[in-house]
Amino acid sequence: MAVQQVFPLSCAVQHYAWGKMGSNSEVARLLASSDPQARISEDKPYAELWMGSHPRGDAKILDNRISQKTLGQWISENQDCLGSKVKDTFNGKLPFLFKVLSVETALSIQAHPNKELAEKLHLQAPQHYPDANHKPEMAIALTSFQGLCGFRPVEEIVTFLTKVPELRFLIGDNATAQLKGSTSSDSQVAASALQSCFSHLMKSEKNVVVEQLSLLVKRISQQAAAGNNMEDICGELLLQLHQQYPGDIGCFAIYFLNLLTLKPGEAMFLEANVPHAYLKGGGSWPSG
Ligand SMILES: [Zn+2]
Q1: Fewer CB near the terminus (10 Å): N or C of the chain?
Q2: What's the 33 CA to ligand 1 centre distance in angstroms?
Q3: Helix residue spans in 125-246 (DSSP H)
């Protein structure tokens, strides 16, 4: 008899603290609709649904005519399903994880190494970098979804440095002037000016960051209360992030990275080395 190739799965769920709660979460709803045995706890966050055979979340097979209990076991006994190229390159393992995320509070900023760097890090410190492969990522919005992706054009950052003196204070006059002067230069000069600004920000003393952030929060709140629109400095988002992560330097990242709001069906691709952060909403993540 031919091997049965199509069968229902119950996918693993990750209850990370940043996920949406209970049945408000896209992840919980998908789990409930695919697995009749699943019980949703309303007081638990349902952050990620993993469709794949990852060792920390191997999907269960919901068909008792199949002898294997999980997708990982099934693949290891039916290696041809991967195709010869993938089977040989990835030692008979599925090199792909499809995730659905449901985000209530913002995640930290990340960038993933390219293949070359991933191999090097894995060789140097396999305990911290268990994977020698790169991890290109694509996010597709299932609901309205907000995220940060890649550096903004220099002109936009320069505008924020003018309109947000609290940010300029952290970056300093020299680095600010360097970035302003780089707008008409070649991209190499602009890139190094940008690098200098960003590292000034990231190396700021914690107490100075807290102080400048609280000045900014106060200013935005007062202006908003007086009926002034603060959207030109992403006022609402800044207040929201500061409420989630009071005093955190990451709040200032919105002035360096492109802010995207995806509509359902829209996607963003996150290449190696591109800084990104997911802020709010539900999306699905096929990742390599
Ligand atoms: Zn990522």
Answers
A1: N
A2: 27
A3: 154-163, 165-171, 173-181, 187-202, 206-225, 235-244
